[in-house]
Amino acid sequence: MKRIRSIDNVLGTVSATLLVSLLAVMLLMGFTQVILRNLFSTSILWGDILLRHIVLWVAFLGAIVATGEKRHITIDALTKILPERGKQIAGIVTGILSVIVCFFLTGASYRFLVDEMEFGGTLILDVPIWVFQLIIPVGFGVMMLRFGLRVIVDSIGLLRGEISDPESGEGNGA
Hints:
It is a single chain. About 75% of the residues lie in helices and about 5% in strands. The two termini are about 20 Å apart. The protein is mostly helical. A hairpin with a 2-residue loop joins strand 1 and strand 2. It has one domain.
């Protein structure tokens, strides 16, 4: 179980680091664009396009981080009336369904990416469009993995009779 948690922690740390880095780049690029337009009546030609694609990456990285913190998908109305064990079971079922959905979305987005690779277009500085869209199948794949890891941890905790902490995903003995 420690190995599963350490894998999940590494995925979370890498995702959060990338997320913060891209947010910084996005803010710097946006600020630079505003200054260039307002003070010098010019801009970085490909700046807005880059910003749009950074937003895509930030959205997926945010979803990956939220998945690891059990903040991505919840059935709030149902969990308010369920006992603790029922909440854990509902969380496991939701996690399994999320793995299934992410599996299909990963496959569909991979096919989309392959189509973009075959098309061969470039976005900025002769970088292929698919490089910027790579986050879509990777994002869904990592979310699928993190949902799956959480299902495993939560299922083991449920079988051991541990009450899980929804904030951290950690279980404590009951």
